[in-house]
Design goal:
CATH class of the largest domain: Mainly Alpha
Structural class: mainly alpha
InterPro entries: TPR-like_helical_dom_sf (IPR011990), TPR_rpt (IPR019734)
Distance between the termini: 33 Å
Helix content: 55-70%
Protein name: Tetratricopeptide repeat protein
Number of helices: 10
Shape: elongated
Radius of gyration: 18 Å
Order of helices and strands: EEHHHHHHHHHH
Mean pLDDT: 87
CATH superfamily of the largest domain: Tetratricopeptide repeat domain
Length: 225
């Protein structure tokens, strides 16, 4: 069984809040380099993982497997952004779009993850308008509520950073109003909402909301949160 992984960026403080879902499926053709890339990724040998994803991408292209090549590029783009190479992550993720088919719903998980990475890399490069466009595209290709809310959270954080607090509050309230069963998602949105209210009014007492979010995170063993 070949493995497929969409590796979303881990949260950096309150900057971005994403999960790292693992998806599995059989690849179109044999590519041991692709498996090796994930072995190194799981071992924390990120540079080696990147190298093998790159080699696997070339092999997929020689096999005329465009989706296989796209999956490699998506992971390479995320690795680059995660390491702080935002220009590299942006360039690789843009390249991945050439090999993805937006009319094929089975490819949506790769498409929305790729757009989210473009949003994060572009945000870090202070190109806020285009970052918003990428987040909106990630949301539009998300059929799972959890994924959609993760990207909405990133969008709200962007608004918060550019001091458009009302737009940020609107999104956080939207997330909280959905009564999601995912408690980590609820705690993240609640703490971000409280921080936004405090940024609007430094006299606002955010302690109750922060303590509630903390209690949920402790119960969920969300140590990073």
């Amino acid at each position: 069984m070949k493995r497929l992984s969409i590796l979303l960026l881990l949260p950096l403080g309150l900057l971005f809040s994403c999960s790292k879902p693992q998806l599995k499926e059989k690849t179109k053709k044999e590519n041991p380099l692709y498996d090796k890339a994930f072995e190194y990724r799981e071992l924390g040998r990120i540079d080696s993982a990147f190298s093998y994803f790159n080699q696997a991408k070339d092999l997929f292209l020689s096999q005329r497997d465009s989706l296989g090549a796209a999956k490699c590029l998506v992971n390479m783009g995320i690795i680059s952004t995660d390491k702080g190479d935002n220009f590299g992550g942006q360039e690789i993720s843009l390249n991945a779009l050439k090999y993805l088919d937006k009319t094929d719903k089975t490819q949506y998980p790769f498409i929305h993850s790729n757009y989210n990475n473009l949003g994060i890399a572009t945000f870090k490069l202070a190109d806020y308008l285009n970052a918003l466009k990428f987040y909106d595209l990630a949301i539009s290709f998300s059929e799972n509520l959890l994924d959609k809310n993760l990207y909405l959270n990133n969008k709200a954080k962007l608004y918060q950073d550019v001091k458009n607090y009302q737009a940020s509050l609107k999104i956080y309230n939207q997330i909280l109003s959905q009564n999601s069963k995912n408690q980590r998602e609820y705690a993240r949105a609640l703490s971000n909402l409280a921080k936004t209210k405090w940024l609007i009014n430094p006299n606002y007492s955010a302690e109750t909301e922060f303590l509630k979010a903390l209690k949920i995170r402790e119960q969920e063993k969300d140590l990073w949160g």
